[in-house]
Write a structure and sequence with these properties.
Blueprint: E1 6-11, H1 17-20, E2 28-31, E3 38-43, H2 48-55, E4 71-80, E5 84-91, E6 97-102, E7 107-112, E8 115-117, E9 131-140, E10 143-150, E11 154-163, E12 169-177, H3 180-183, H4 190-194, H5 198-202, E13 217-222, H6 239-255, E14 261-264, H7 274-284, E15 288-295, E16 307-312, H8 319-329, H9 331-334, H10 347-357, H11 359-375, E17 381-389, E18 401-408, H12 412-418, H13 421-445
Parallel strand pairs: 1-3, 4-8, 13-14, 13-15, 15-18, 16-17
Antiparallel strand pairs: 2-11, 3-6, 4-5, 5-12, 6-7, 7-10, 9-10, 11-12, 16-18
């Protein structure tokens, strides 16, 4: 039975009568009802495979080959104007698709299971009508997502699957303009209330690290991933790709010699929320957390370049650092998550003050200084190579943490270097050398 506020629409799946039963050759669709409808398109009846995908818990992030026979998305486009805009997605076969809206900012989210995106380079960067841009990628194990950035509040007027040749279908989502009052929190707004609360899980009192630990645990955090590409260069190079390559090289370097136990928050192109990155660090009781990113700017793009090391602070060291933290902290919203609201009630300030009183902040600053010294010997640094701001991913009471912006995707020379395996190897080596110096100093001091 349809749930209140949602309209269930059938996806025509052709050529599979034995599995799914007879299907109509015409498009099966329904108009959404109510002021703020969301819609779910599904195979009728749902296949067992789809049910398993939806109910299966995400396993630990691991490198996996592309699934054989996976549904492919081959083309995506926008049509229409500022009054009504339609999003179209060509799929190799029908799948279950859920469509809903979110506010702050206004977004339309489309969730799909096990879809491989084979879209042309640059798809989604240019908007049309009510949509300014859209992005796509893997959100979690067995779950893909498309997020449409709306220029204003929109209504899901109609959604459906239109059958094509063989098993191919076209997902069509029609949007119309509406008012902020009618939009409210969006049809997916209740998801925010269902999300786990951040403070009890991440900011509880410190737990002791295992006393019998034989060697330091290091967590390398390649930023962004999956549906969140991060910064994009003029030639279409994604930040998520660069930082994953550097992270893998850094892990290899640190693992040599067996001095450390090294982990990564992600090892492939999948989205990991900021909360989950923090949770993984806490679960590991990591001794050092290194988050890797690459920046992009619009103003002075041809002159601003070089790497920067950031640490946590209550107040940003400068305006550029504040804007950088604001951009990186928006990762969950970019992925179409309804994030928790505790930051709006002044709790972050007290959390930061508490964190900054701890010795963790001193260790983070010490490692940051060591990083700058080692990196300056092999890579170009920015004008102010050591900055600080309220980065959410650095809010760790027990683990010294830094965020490294490796360079600027918006600068032509930096982009060339960031995409160079040889440069990636050099920067990974310099970070690894800094790690050795940092732990060497702590080991000597503890004797």
């Amino acid at each position: 039975m349809p749930r209140r506020g949602r309209a269930w629409i059938a996806a025509a799946v052709l050529g599979l009568p034995a599995l799914f039963g007879p299907q109509s050759a015409s498009a099966l669709e329904t108009k959404s009802k109510g002021a703020n409808p969301s819609a779910v398109a599904q195979n009728v009846p749902p296949s067992p495979a789809t049910t398993i995908v939806e109910k299966r818990a995400a396993r630990a992030d691991a490198q996996k080959p592309e699934k054989i026979g996976a549904v492919s998305a081959t083309r995506a486009e926008l049509a229409g104007n500022e009054a009504a805009t339609t999003f179209l997605l060509d799929l190799s076969s029908g799948v279950q698709a859920e469509v809903f809206t979110l506010a702050d900012p206004y977004r339309v989210v489309i969730d799909l299971p096990d879809v491989v995106f084979r879209l042309p380079k640059g798809t989604g960067q240019d908007g049309k009508g009510l949509i300014s841009a859209f992005r796509y990628g893997l959100l979690a194990e067995g779950k893909a997502r498309i997020v449409l950035d709306a220029r204003q509040p929109v209504l899901i007027a109609k959604a459906g699957m239109i059958p094509g040749k063989d098993r191919a279908v076209r997902l069509s989502v029609e949007l119309t303009a509406t008012t902020p009052a009618a939009f409210g929190g969006g049809t997916g707004g209740e998801r925010g209330a269902q999300a786990p609360q951040l403070k009890p899980e991440i900011y509880e009192e410190r737990s002791e690290k295992p006393k019998d630990r034989a060697k330091p645990v290091i967590l390398v955090d390649p930023g962004h991933g999956g549906i969140d590409p991060g910064a994009m260069s003029a030639d279409g190079l994604a930040e998520k790709t660069v930082v994953l390559a550097v992270a893998q090289k850094l892990k290899d370097r640190l693992s040599q010699g067996g001095r450390y136990d090294v982990y990564m928050t992600r090892t492939r192109d999948v989205f990991i929320s900021l909360d989950e990155r923090l949770k993984r660090s806490k679960t590991l009781a990591a001794d050092l957390f290194i988050s890797l990113h690459a920046d992009s700017i619009v103003q002075n793009a041809d002159t601003v370049r070089g790497a920067t090391v950031y640490t946590l602070s209550e107040r940003a060291s400068d305006e550029e650092a504040r804007l950088m933290a604001e951009k990186e902290n928006a990762s969950d919203a970019i992925a179409g998550l309804a994030t928790a609201k505790f930051e709006e009630h002044g709790q972050v300030r007290s959390i930061l003050i508490d964190l900054l009183k701890r010795e963790t902040a001193n260790f983070s600053a010490d490692f940051s200084n060591t990083l700058v010294k080692k990196m300056t010997k092999t890579v170009s640094l920015s004008r102010e190579p050591h900055r600080s701001a309220a980065f959410k991913v650095l809010r760790q009471a027990d683990t010294p943490s830094v965020l490294i912006e490796l360079g600027y995707m918006s600068h032509a020379e930096d982009e060339k270097l960031l995409n160079s395996p040889a440069w990636q190897e050099r920067v990974a080596t310099s970070i690894s050398t800094a790690v050795d110096a940092y732990f060497g100093k702590r080991t000597t001091g503890s004797r």
